[in-house]
Amino acid sequence: MCVFCKIIQGEIPSYKVYEDDKVLAILDISQATIGHTLVMPKTHHETIFDLDDETISHLYKVVRKISSSYQEKLNGMVGLNLLNNNKEKAGQTVPHYHVHIIPRYDDDNLKDIEFTNNSKDVDFNELIKTIKING
Ligand code: AMP
Ligand code: ZN
Fold this sequence. Notes:
5-stranded antiparallel sheet; binds zinc ion
């Protein structure tokens, strides 16, 4: 059983921020900033590629609920990052889907993710032909 399934089962202790029958939100054991939170489905799905519409739509409603609540309750919070890593290459260390809620403060010493502009390597017309989805 994965570490988050053990937390969900109550085998490993956690600081619970929110819980319902489908979703659990806990404080990350390693607080990148004050209030750093992980929101996860109670069912074991490894990545975004494994999740069904119903589970993920409910999960993101909870993410929004917690984010709004933090804006009211966390003193000095001036911004917030949402982060979800899928697969090892992308930095996923726990193979149970989760969204990081990372409150931001003026002097939080957290490095922003730097996006290098690699557009020179991209043929936009070819790419859009390949990946465009009809809504
Ligand atoms: P990721 O790298 O996106 O898979 O994030 C995994 C996160 O889980 C890390 O930020 C860890 O600090 C956190 N984590 C690992 N074990 C625990 C635990 N027992 N309780 C709370 N957070 C945990
Ligand atoms: Zn799990």
